[in-house]
Amino acid sequence: MKGKKFDAHKKHFDKLALRLRQENKLFNDDNLRLLTENFDLKNEVSRLKRDIEIYKEWNERLLEYTELTKEQIKEKIELDKQKGRVFENMEFILKFFNSGGIL
């Protein structure tokens, strides 16, 4: 008689343990999905913040242009292009030195 009660309890325990493992797997799967989604959303937010900064800079530059004559606008655009080239050259030089180009 004792053996049958023990077997029934063990069977019930095994069934319960299986159900808990299955539920745990579902929670882990959901957790992984949410972590991935959260990571993707954080990346999207970062990208959008960078875009906002770019648009703010463009907006400020355009507002500056509204106060200038056509000739001043042309000069300002050329100056901005030159600044951009200087920064590109500086970036190239820094990358060159950081890569061990010249010691």
Question: Describe it for me?
Answer:
There is one protein chain. The protein has about 100 residues and is mainly alpha-helical. It is about 90% helix and about 0% strand. It is built from two helices and no strands.
Q: Give the SSE order as H and E letters.
A: HH
Please tell me the total number of domains: 1
Cα end-to-end separation? 87 Å
Biggest sheet record: none
Characteristics:
elongated, mainly alpha, 103 residues
Describe the SSE topology.
Blueprint: H1 2-66, H2 70-98
Give a concise summary:
The protein has 103 residues and is mainly alpha-helical. The protein contains two helices and no strands. It has one domain.
